[in-house]
Amino acid sequence: MSTITFTQQLNETTTLMRVKSPDAATRAKAGQFAIIQPDAYGERIPLTIADTDKESGEVTVIFQRVGRTTDILSKMSAGDTLAAFAAPLGKPTDFGDSNRVLIIGGGVGTAIAYPSAKSCRQSGKSVDGIIGFRSRDLVILEQQFRGNTDNLQIMTDDGSYGERGFVTDKARQLLSDNSYDLCVAIGPIPMMKAVCLVTKKFGVKTLVSLNPIMIDGTGMCGCCRVSVGGETKFACVDGPDFDGALVDFDELSLRNKAYLDRERCDKDNCRLYNQAGNQV
After folding, report:
1. In terms of Cα–Cα distance, which of 70, 30, 37, 15 is closest to 265?
2. Which range (51-55, 57-61, 243-247, 256-260) has the least confidence?
3. The pTM is what?
4. DSSP states of 153-178 as a string?
5. Are residues 2 and 81 in contact, defined by beta-carbon separation less than 8 angstroms?
6. Nearest in space to 150 (alpha carbons), one of 176, 130, 166
7. Distance (Å) of CA 72 to CA 11, 15, 29, 82, 131
8. Which of helix, strand or coil describes residue 38?
């Protein structure tokens, strides 16, 4: 079991949690994730490692309350123990020999994009960042991004903070004015797909982080299969990063919606429903 050392509510639906795991804190790299099980009866869910502290032995994860398990996690506090915390899993992000990188995060995906910005900055790369949210009250990790980018642009759908528009609007502008070796885009599936369509026109390779349905995180169950370049890959062991130009985003979207009729989460409660729509 691993012990929770700190929790913070970043906004109405998003929670930051630190977990004591010295081994993971020492070995984890940008792009890798953890499989977390809150209690003996709960499901196992993958959460990308947002940050690590080798000195304290802590691993940070940031998640959005969207279903029963994340609802349980959001109600846990410092001192509570997790039934399982397996990390680091997956392959670290491969930035290749890139010198100038554009990092794009959308919504909670910003927490997944942040380790890439931090890693690139620490290795001496030039880093520009774009983070996008629906509105000002959902903005997270702004200061962390500012500390690890040369230039940060913030976009909101409603214009309540930063500039009004989508991350693709700003990406198109930056790509027109600058030369990048690599782009890392992480967020909702439609956002990643849209960014890849933009970067393709400029000939910039784009890495995306895929988070399909996943159970064991070791390649045994096959639930996290995705189609990349016409081949079947497993996000947990072959990824989670892939070349966005090769990803079948439409298939990924359909697979991720497979159980939406079974589990829903509203502002106050997370409830389990059967396929007929009746609460269990």
Report:
1. 70
2. 256-260
3. 0.91
4. EEEETTSSSSEES-HHHHHHHHHHHS
5. yes
6. 130
7. 17, 11, 27, 11, 28
8. coil
